[in-house]
Amino acid sequence: MFETLLGKTVLVTGASAGIGAATATEFVKATNGNIKLILGARRVSKLEELADGLKKLYPSVQIYVGQLDVSEVSKIDQFFAQLPAQYSEIDVLINNSGKALGQEKVGDIDPTDIATVFDTNVLGLIAMTQIVLKGMKKRNRGDIVQLGSIAGRWTYAGGSIYCSSKAALKSFTEAMRKELTSTKIRVIEVAPGNTKTEFALVRFKGDADRASQVYEGVDTLLPQDVAELIVFACSRRETAVIAESIIMSTNQAGPQDLYRKQ
Predict the structure, then answer these.
(1) Catalytic (active site) residue 55
(2) Active-site residue identified among 8, 64, 99, 162
(3) Whole-prediction pTM
(4) 162 assigned to active site
(5) How many CB atoms lie under 10 A from the CB of residue 26?
């Protein structure tokens, strides 16, 4: 099923934990280590732990680890400039980095939080895409996977900034897909619902009690659920694209339509 992925070079942003780490792991498992990974995140020590663990299980896998904070858009070029030659032709880009900060209502939102969310979820994603797409156009092949969110489709009170950032991602992705229909480059958006990761802890700025309440009484998605969908989409025949996918736990039908056990 995954023969089409063998030998490819896959770049995953935000790969130090959660969906990013699970996606990197799933690509390696699917190819039995016959793949090259470029892992980028702010926490390099976490990336190194992930890489070491994967290499022990799959000695043939090739992994490059580099520090990358996509919210620092002016520094993204440096990340690519440092890539070894054998990783220069990127076949698959997984734009996984993303965050939400706080749940303040409009009028009370910290301008710094607004800038950080848009720098990460929109401007950083666009910058990563533009750089990688240049090479894909030259080779006339490649997959660009954007990690969206159900919040980009259905809004909720307290989510104005996060929801609008993910809606911007969706619009950017749709327009790019239309621009690339004459090529063999596939543009894929995967939009998860409630997934148990560090997302809530980051959103509530380290408040573990508040973050844990997000998942109370809920059988959430796990990062692996999303990772499996991403790898499946990237393994299809090059003439087929799973353009958009929404994945939620069976007890969810929207951002606030979530059944909680009593």
Answers:
(1) no
(2) 162
(3) 0.96
(4) yes
(5) 22
